[in-house]
Specification:
Length: about 350
């Protein structure tokens, strides 16, 4: 097998060696941290994805060692391959920050700000981008684009008003199922995700479109409005499944399994696709072998209220409070006359 040539690329002053053919976005992911551009449409598991949303724009300050001229325009990092000696600016570029603010403003033009009632709230990539790059008020004066909600089969609801036309669900249906029956119909302002003559998406792997959707446009009807995601506890579990890997994350409230999803990596991408049976029909803990709590980034709202790896202090309560007994903290009247009715009567 021919040896893959490695080349050097510098992103935000950090140099990394990557195999030839790597994109700027993949190289940034190899470095990790803040230098990784956000990606609303690119999905490493889906062939051909990327190039639609422009959130991953970066500045190429030096093209390569052989041709050091900078690229005149910002480029989509998910679609641009690295060259040897290339220098890229992401968070160190004011041009990029400015452009990203503009892209987010465009993505939010028609997107409803209904996070308080949206099932995706807390795990929505657009919500995160809105916090980081959004404006406090809209400059849009025209009537917003709205659509009726559609049921796509018995398990999935499409709320097209929230869709950002990233095409991820289209690629998922194309690449995981034998017969895709939905896609983007019309163009420009009229473009919408739709099923051809209202056919339902009933393929056994179609539930994965819910996991790849970066916003709340495709939601799980078995979970809709059941709970907020930050009140649930993600638990890794598996089962013997004839159709898929059977490895999932259960989202539990107490012992109740409210939702089943595929496991996701640090970029929020599905690790292995799961079938509809595992996702929608196995909602009891007895269906699963529980492995333990899922790791959630401590920056995620989902980690609120979860105390993984909690360290219990060795000292007793009394030792921490210089010998005072706990009951003294609850009834201060034995040590203070403040607000003590009996004390007032006495005087
Ligand atoms: S429904 Fe979701 S996954 Fe499909 S194009 Fe719209 S935003 Fe992307
Ligand atoms: S992630 Fe690169 S254009 Fe959308």
């Amino acid at each position: 097998m021919a040896e893959v040539k490695h080349i050097k690329v510098t992103i935000d002053n950090i140099t990394v060696e990557v195999p030839q053919g790597t994109t700027i976005l993949q190289a940034a992911r190899m470095i990790g941290g803040d230098v990784v551009p956000p990606a609303m449409c690119y999905y490493s598991k889906l062939e051909g994805s990327g190039g639609k949303c422009r959130t991953c724009l970066v500045e190429v300050a030096k093209g390569s060692e052989a041709d050091p001229r900078p690229m005149p325009k910002l480029v989509a990092s998910c679609r641009t391959g690295v060259m040897d000696g290339m220098e890229v600016r992401n968070i160190t570029s004011d041009r990029v920050k400015d452009a990203r603010n503009g892209v987010v403003e465009f993505l939010l033009l028609n997107h409803p700000l209904d996070c308080p009632i949206c099932d995706q709230a807390g795990e929505c990539h657009l919500q995160d981008l809105g916090y980081e790059h959004g404006k406090e008020a809209t400059r849009y004066e025209f009537k917003r684009r709205t659509f009726e909600k559609h049921d796509l089969g018995p398990y999935i609801q499409l709320h097209m008003t929230r869709c950002i036309l990233c095409y991820r669900c289209v690629y998922t249906a194309d690449q995981l199922t034998e017969k895709r029956v939905h896609g983007v119909l019309s163009r420009g302002d009229h473009a919408e995700i739709a099923t051809y003559i209202e056919k339902s998406l009933d393929n056994n792997f179609i539930g994965n479109v819910i996991d790849v959707c970066p916003v709340g446009a495709l939601t799980d009807k078995t979970f809709r409005f059941k709970n907020r995601v930050w009140f649930t506890k993600p638990v890794l579990a598996h089962r013997e499944c004839k159709s898929c890997c059977g490895k999932v994350t259960l989202w539990q409230r107490g012992d109740q399994v409210l939702r089943v999803t595929a496991r996701k990596d640090q970029w929020g991408e599905v690790e292995e696709w799961i079938c509809n049976e595992c996702r929608f029909d196995k909602k009891s803990t007895s269906d699963w072998t529980i492995e333990g709590p899922a790791q959630v980034s401590r920056h995620s709202v989902i980690s609120q209220g979860h105390y993984e790896k909690l360290v219990q202090p060795k000292e007793t309560f009394t030792a921490v409070h210089d010998g005072r007994q706990p009951q003294l903290l609850m009834d201060i009247h034995s040590v203070s006359e403040v607000n003590d009715k009996t004390a007032k009567t006495k005087s």
